[in-house]
């Protein structure tokens, strides 16, 4: 796949952030905080790292696959899919509206290209990704499976069932990532339900850990992904701890759980868009 | 009592329906390289050992982690595998309802959820394991096919039929040794009810283990001069409404019989069909809003009112309401 310059990728991020904010603003609902925070990572995957085909096929044979377990970050994924050519960019304007393929949380029911499983009820995506990775092995398909989770999501028990399973079954064609923004709906994770040392937990479960300390710095993200890729195929699954700032890119949204599930009003949107360059043209 | 009756179907052997699943899965594995098996630490109970032995690379031990198992199975369909998950019916449904709902049903994945030890007849383990709500939970889910076969042969045939069926499915079977009274070479048509005995006075719609009880009840009713039609509803969803309405148009009343709560199961499905199309008296045989308890399968079916005698009583009650 064509590799892009860091400048170019950052330009895409700016446009994707604009998309996310405009989508959420238009329907006054959705989840802008984590979408802004995870932007560099998901853009890096779709525009630089993954081998994938925007002419969507559900079975994904011969392609790298991406699963978004924390489905509430749907606006980000939809924008990235549209900007990657999976469907027309104007369709972003239907987000969360009646009769749209862009459901509040990702779904397959309406046939939106790029989505392989519904997500939103937390804790399920890692299991799905592991299953898809094992099918790739059975099919002698050497491509990788990527799974994205939230940090609050680590409070779900199923995540740890999956953690144990992937190590036991040596699912080493899998790169999972946790968006460590330290925020969840009711407040900071350390106050709501302290995750303590997530790296130690995943390591104890038999995973290889890659820390991306600057998850909103494109160069760091690319470097971390390269490291993660180099650890695949060694008999152990790989976990990226992606340290991000919720709301990154908009000064009044950054670093707080306040914007987890709240849409900006007209004035706030204008202020936010003033901070983000329109690089690819708004939808 | 059974021996003295003139039964329309007889048997020479009894076997558990779960063995029908195990043997069907092995054959399915031989027929189709995409069939994979997953089990949550119950290989012996689910009779999945033979499949595991012959296809170790296509079998996945999940440990005691049913939620993960459902997610794994959903993921394995992406790329063309046909996963059959195996655990007890309780842990196949209630424990993992949201995983099935989101990752399998709503996502329309080709996962076969195979559930043993359903209903009262698992016996001595008691009510924690005797799920009586699973058919209701599963039939409420859009996209889900729900199958509850009656004996070893039908369970094996249903397992094989599921390989060629595309979409989410729930296959329910059980633990007790049970008469094998349907043919080994039967063709299993998902969604197609099987009229096993012709009759004209009352229709007995039965599913699962209670199909055998219905066959016995028919003979008992016949001795009293009542002609009962017996229809084997092995597929709860999609329900063969045409077969139901055709039969009730003729007999004018019906009994439903299932090893399940009255709420939400086969009886409710039939009632819904009748009330919308052809209102007629319907009596329910099933568990009346209670949990089960420890005991032998025979004792439990008697105590909770699910055996042939109860079907006979219900049939007479339905007849009296005509």
UniProtKB/TrEMBL annotation, chain A:
Cofactor(s) it depends on: thiamine diphosphate
Source superkingdom: Bacteria
Enzyme Commission no: 2.2.1.1
Enzyme class: transferase
UniProtKB keywords: Thiamine pyrophosphate, Transferase
Similarity comment: Belongs to the transketolase family.
Domain Transketolase N-terminal: 15-271
Protein name in UniProt: Transketolase
InterPro entries per record: THDP-binding, Transketolase_N
GO MF entries: transketolase activity
PANTHER family, A to Z: TRANSKETOLASE N-TERMINAL SECTION-RELATED
Organism: Indibacter alkaliphilus (strain CCUG 57479 / KCTC 22604 / LW1)
TrEMBL record, chain B:
GO MF assignments: transketolase activity
InterPro entries per UniProt: PDH/Transketolase, THDP-binding, Transketo_C/PFOR_II, Transketolase-like_Pyr-bd, Transketolase_C
EC number: 2.2.1.1
Leading EC class: transferase
Cofactor field: thiamine diphosphate
Ranges where the Transketolase-like pyrimidine-binding domain occurs: 15-180
Keywords: Thiamine pyrophosphate, Transferase
Keyword Transferase in record: yes
Family annotation (PANTHER family): PYRUVATE DEHYDROGENASE E1 COMPONENT, TRANSKETOLASE-LIKE PYRIMIDINE-BINDING DOMAIN-CONTAINING PROTEIN
Record family assignment: Belongs to the transketolase family.
Protein name listed in UniProt: Transketolase
Taxonomic source organism: Indibacter alkaliphilus (strain CCUG 57479 / KCTC 22604 / LW1)
Record lineage: Bacteria, Pseudomonadati, Bacteroidota, Cytophagia, Cytophagales
